[in-house]
Amino acid sequence: MDEPADTVKQQIAAAEPLSGALGRPTLKTIAFMTGLGVTTVSRALKDAPEIGEETRRRVQLVARQVGYRPNRAGVRLRTGKTNVISLVLNTEEQIGGFVSDMIYGISEHLAQTPYHLIVTPYSRNNDPLEPVRYVVETGSADGIIISRTEPDDKRVRYMLERGFPFVTHGRTEVDTGHAFHDFDNYAFARDAVRKLAELGRRRLALLGPPSTLSYHHHMRNGFLDTMGELGFAEMPFNAVTVDHSIEQIRARTLQLMQRPNRPDGIVSGAGGATFALVAGIEDAGLRVGRDVEIVSKQSAKLLHMFRPEIHVVNEDVRKAGRELARSIIALIGGAPAASLQSLSQPGPVLARGE
Fold first, then answer.
1. Mean of pLDDT values over 284-296
2. Which of 26, 183, 227, 273 is the 20 to 30 Å CA partner of 265?
């Protein structure tokens, strides 16, 4: 049970001579309030196995109540660690909550640890290796999380060569032993094609990610392999990817839908791109669910609010964030990278109300 706020305030006041600059609570403050030694308090805050569960719980409760935060400069001097994880993100990541959900999931797990998250941004106009090189060379974080991986990812090669802890959101072909979490985009595309076949669609197109990214190959292979099994022929959806602007995808979709031999089913690799797909289809005077069926992956559950006829597969990006955070902390703690590889399977293809 939490101690009453007034009691905690009285204890803080009594412990004030033991506090650091500006009254910031220190390990001595917590030691005074719990009646324990400073060394025991320090170990309890680090979840040391030799400290009993009841002692750890009591120390951590008091630390939360008084707002204790370890001094990062002091921690770095004592341990050589920053207690910081850097998430290197493209500033033009998918719309629809992808970035915020990723950050939320990572932060949710890190809240249980001494680690803090910093976001290191870059744009597609910059070299994606630069922010990684900066963090490694300055030692401004203990570990790095990257996304938008490529099969031969130079960021992965760089960190492997320097022995720097990292985990990737997505797989690579650089070294199958590195830590990663990924969504099974092969299975997503396979299930999407099968669903469209069940709906009687035969002329299928894929709106996927850029060909430079690893998950392009996973998604496209799942699409083509299943099309081949069913004896279907692909309707090429060229010139745009899910990374293009809504206006570009909309214009290209309109062109495609105006052809005599247009697709009657589309697999979309991102929820944001699907909004543009629907706009292009409707610009052509056609209707989703009648003239064209769509199966789309989404990270934010918005598509059924937009058009209930769309079939969706949900990707839990918050879960991905938690997995990435768990893996990087374990890796920093000495766990082998090959044991920190996980692959989320897609859920069922859902219609509205399912």
1. 98
2. 183
